Request: fold
Amino acid sequence: MPSKKNRSTTLALFCKVVDNYGDIGICWRLAKQLEQEHSIAVTLWVDDLRSFQRICPAVDTGRELQQVDNITVQHWRGQGGEFAAEDIADIVIEFFACDIPPGYIAAMARCEQRPVWLNLEGLTAETWVEGCHTLPSPHPSLSLTKYFFFPGFTRRTGGLLREASLEELRLDFQSRPAHADDFLARFGMTPAEISSLKVSLFCYPQAPVSALFQAWQTGGRAVTCLVPEGVATEALETFLGIPAKAGATATHGALTVRVLPFIPQPDYDKLLWSCDVNFVRGEDSFVRAQWAGKPFIWHIYPQDENLHHVKLKAFLQAYTPATAGLLALSYAWNGVTAGTVNWTETWPDFAEGLSGIAREATNWQNLQLANGDLASNLLKFANAMR
Ligand code: TRH
Reply:
């Protein structure tokens, strides 16, 4: 068991991978930032090392306990286990309301100085979040209080995850076009593809990918669409006529599609920085697309009873760069639009506004920068509660 002796502030972050990569993607980003920028000794408890390894190849899926980039990674095997007060971190975070082991909670209550206990919630632009951010929730039987902590898009929320060096890295990368060209050439892109309209595509299986491909194929502008392996496989294979493995590529009409390997997190940022338009999904890639300062279309994580449509609309209402074309494409992409979508109009209506959207995206970034970053805001709150 990682001990908190001889360390500065210690923090335990519990991550249950519900599906896909967003849960661990966000927790890993947060863990690294807390360690690197705030010198916090972080233990990341994660129940799925395989998903973790896909975004961070240094992870050894066979090890119960390991150090990765100075973070203690503990394979979280279940709710059992006895814990002593010395095992408990100063700050305990459960991600997305995952239930942490009862033995751990009991030991938290036995600590002379109780840890600060936070439930880090999912990102939404809905306005009710401001009223719930940092609300306390007393434990029904133990002398412990858990606080809700919400990321968000306003000053009255926890803000968005962003590393201190991110903006500098992006500006440096984007100020030297040869960097982006070399980066894209690594995936086999030809000079003609590099000079076409470059689109990265990351979405859920429900997205109407084939319809969009059809519009690109018959459109007047050369488009190269870069898709990580495992995404939109059915539509890709229909287009490619071969298995959608990394390296597979085909051109029909004005559209070239290229399958990329699933790349480590830092390279995914470079991909977003290199493309002209990014289709992103879930939470983490959605936030990274905003920091990339490029036009993007969000495929929101689907929820029962179309709850996600409410969240999508809340974001688009707040998102100042949104043009009529961006709204129409976002609604069509997420199945909000009633009736048949005319993709040969929806795409060009969006595409003709690209330079204006890109300009406004910088203003949006500045608005978000003013809210501070999630890791610093979270620590500020935790320190105030200690
Ligand atoms: O993978 P996602 O769909 O993740 C999540 C989960 O489904 C989660 O349960 C749900 O709560 C949440 O969405 C809303 O999408 P997301 O959030 O964008 O996470 C993807 C991560 O994978 C992100 O950290 C970026 C990373 N990534 C890479 O590292 N390399 C790649 O090639 C790609 C495409 C993504």
